[in-house]
Amino acid sequence: MSKTILVVDDSSSFRTVVKLALQKAGYTVIEAGDGKDASAKLNGQKINLIVCDVNMPNMDGLSFLRHVKTQAAYKFTPVIMLTTESQEAKKAEGRAAGARAWITKPFQPSQLVDAVNRLCV
């Protein structure tokens, strides 16, 4: 059975790039446009991993990450932050909130797939 990845980014073209790379690697992908949209998709369905941007409208990635970690069904779901943010302070904030990996845009799709393969259980 294929694993399900939730991709959260406010850029639809960026979500498409990520989705294609993950689907090619055999994953099922659910898309969300921001943290609020993504929160609505945490409805009890099995999500094996979340790939999330930091800077988004309505609910940013770090707020969404903190929200995910309060949900019993998703508290142990690994989260990879995929963002233009590269400051150590942001990365530290992400780690403190529960991010398992931090990939800076622009990125190589193979780099993302490698991280997903490592963390997706």
From TrEMBL:
<keyword id="KW-0597">Phosphoprotein</keyword>
<feature type="modified residue" description="4-aspartylphosphate">
    <location>
        <position position="53"/>
    </location>
</feature>
<dbReference type="InterPro" id="IPR011006">
    <property type="entry name" value="CheY-like_superfamily"/>
</dbReference>
<dbReference type="InterPro" id="IPR001789">
    <property type="entry name" value="Sig_transdc_resp-reg_receiver"/>
</dbReference>
<protein>
    <submittedName>
        <fullName>Response regulator</fullName>
    </submittedName>
</protein>
<feature type="domain" description="Response regulatory">
    <location>
        <begin position="4"/>
        <end position="120"/>
    </location>
</feature>
<dbReference type="Pfam" id="PF00072">
    <property type="entry name" value="Response_reg"/>
</dbReference>
<dbReference type="InterPro" id="IPR050595">
    <property type="entry name" value="Bact_response_regulator"/>
</dbReference>
